[in-house]
Amino acid sequence: MVTLIPDGVFLQDGQHIIPATAAQAKENANVFDATKAYKETMAYRILMAHQTGDGDQSLQIKFDALTSHDITYVGIIQTAIASGLDHFPVPYVLTNCHNSLAAVGGTINEDDHVFGLSAVKRFGGIYVPPHLAVIHQYMREMAAGCGKMILGSDSHTRYGALGTMAIGEGGPELVKQLLGRTYDIQRPKVIAIYLEGKPRHGIGPQDVALAIEKAVFKNGFVKNTVMEFVGPGIQHLSMDFRNGIDVMTTETTCLSTIWCTDAVTKEFLTVHGRGSDFTPLTPGEVAYYDGLVKVELDKVESMIAMPFHPSNVYTIKELNEGGQDLLREIEAKAVEQLDNKELRLLLPEKYAHGKLHVDQGIIVGCSGGLYENVMAAANIVRGKGVGHDRFAFSVYPSSQPIYLELMRNGALADLMEAGAIVRTAFCGPCFGAGDTPNNGGLSARHATRNFPNREGSKPGNGQISSVALMDARSIAATAIYEGALTPATEVDYEDEIPAYHFNSKPYDHKVYAGFGEANKEANIIYGPSIKAWPTIQPLTEHILLKVAAYIDDPVTTTDELIPSGETSSFRSDPYALSEFALSRKVPEYVGRAKAVRAWEKSRQDNELASDLQDAYILLNDTLQLGQTVETLANTTAVASLVYANKPGDGSAREQAASCQRVLGGGANIALEYATKRYRSNVINWGMLPFVTSEEDAKKLAVGDYVYVANVRTILLSEQDDFKAYVVNEGKKEEINLHLGYLSEEEKEIIAKGCLINYYADAK
Question: In what side-by-side order are the strands of the sheet with 2-5?
Answer without folding.
Answer: 2-5, 291-296, 190-196, 226-230, 256-259
